[in-house]
Amino acid sequence: MTFGVLNHVHTTFTSNIATTVKSPSTRLAKNWKEHHGANNWVGLLNPLDDTLRSELLRYGKFVQAAYKSFDFDSTSVTYSKSRFPENSLLPLSGYPATGYQVTRSLHSSSGIKLPWWVVGQQSSSSWIGYVAVCQDEEEIARLGRRDVVISFRGTATCLEWVENFRTKLTRVTKYVAGADDSGAAAMVESGFWSLYSSVGFVHRSLQQELRDEIRRLLDLYENDKSPLSITFTGHSLGASLAVLAAYDISTTFFQRCSSAHVSVVSFGGPQVGNGRFRRQVEDLGIKILRIVNTRDIVTKLPGLGYSDVGEQLNICCSSKNMADCHDLNVYLQLLKQPCTSSNCRF
Question: Where is the Fungal lipase-type domain (predicted)?
Answer without folding.
Answer: 149-303
